[in-house]
Each structure stands twice: as C-alpha cells, then as structure tokens.
Amino acid sequence: MALPEPLQSLPAAPLGGESQAPFEALLALGLYVAIAVFLIGTLMGLCWWLGHKTRSPAKGEPYESGVLPTGAARLREPVPFYLVAIFFIVFDVEAIFIVSWAVAWDLLSWAGFAQISFFIVILFLGLVYLWKMGGLEWGPRAHYQRRGKERSG
C-alpha cells in the first residue's frame, strides 16, 4: 500500500520513539528547571528586598472591606458551599469522561457504550446513596432532624 504524497516526504522516526538522545533530553530538562528556579528565586528575593518591612498592630488586624470583624472566624457547622463545590467538581469530572466517550463513540462501539453506562449507573447509585443518607440536605430543619436522630439512636 503506497503512502499519500505528503507522508512520503516525511523523514522516518527513529525506533523507540525518541527524537533526541536521552542525555540531550535530560540536559534540556535540567536547564529548563535551573532557569525556572533561578527566575523564581530572583523574583522572590527582589520582593523581599524591595518590600516594606514595617510592622504595626493595625497591620496585623484582619480586614474585610473596611468593616471591623465581629465574632469568631470559625463556624460551628460546615458551610453548604463546600458541599455544592464538591458536587460541582464530581459532576464536572463526570462530564469530562462522558464528553471524551462521546467524541470517540464510533471507535468504541457497544463495548464503550456498556462501559460508559456502567460508569453513569455507579455515579447515579452514589448520588442515590448520598440522598438517602441526608447528604444533600442542609439548613436548620435538616440539621435539627439529624441531631434528633443522633440523640434518639
């Protein structure tokens, strides 16, 4: 079978898949790392040397949009935002896998369909389990119901 015209003019890749000698590749990587470390160190040193070094009690105070802080910074209960953020990350990763499958669906055939279906079913079962355990409920009502179950149980 003859190769198309543009592919016939390309040079053959060396066996083993390496285009450079291992020493040259490691030397290039080492040089890159050395330059990066030098630049980062130089910039951090300049920031330390040129930065202001004055200390005062007012500088050590927390500052939030010009409003003086009141109360403790630590919350007694977890913030629902973190739960929403974790769900977003989980479903975002799930979407990446499903889109990757959708791009190559014609190459994967029925075996790929079975695998992505299994993946979706496992994620759905995890979501149902989380829902049944009360992980999706937050707020005062859910908090007091959960506390009542702990005391009675």
Automatic annotation (TrEMBL):
It is a multi-pass membrane protein. Keywords: Cell membrane, Membrane, NAD, Quinone, Translocase, Transmembrane, Transmembrane helix, Transport, Ubiquinone. Pfam families: Oxidored_q4 (PF00507). The keyword NAD applies. Its EC number is 7.1.1.-. It is found in: Cell membrane; Membrane. The keyword Cell membrane applies. The chain crosses the membrane at residues 25-50, 81-104, 110-131. It catalyses: a quinone + NADH + 5 H(+)(in) = a quinol + NAD(+) + 4 H(+)(out). It comes from the Bacteria. Its main location: membrane. InterPro entries: NAD(P)H_OxRDtase_bac/plastid, NADH_UbQ/plastoQ_OxRdtase_su3, NDAH_ubi_oxred_su3_sf. NDH-1 shuttles electrons from NADH, via FMN and iron-sulfur (Fe-S) centers, to quinones in the respiratory chain. The immediate electron acceptor for the enzyme in this species is believed to be ubiquinone. Couples the redox reaction to proton translocation (for every two electrons transferred, four hydrogen ions are translocated across the cytoplasmic membrane), and thus conserves the redox energy in a proton gradient. NDH-1 is composed of 14 different subunits. Subunits NuoA, H, J, K, L, M, N constitute the membrane sector of the complex. Belongs to the complex I subunit 3 family. This is NADH-quinone oxidoreductase subunit A. The lineage of its organism: Bacteria, Pseudomonadati, Thermodesulfobacteriota, Desulfuromonadia, Desulfuromonadales.
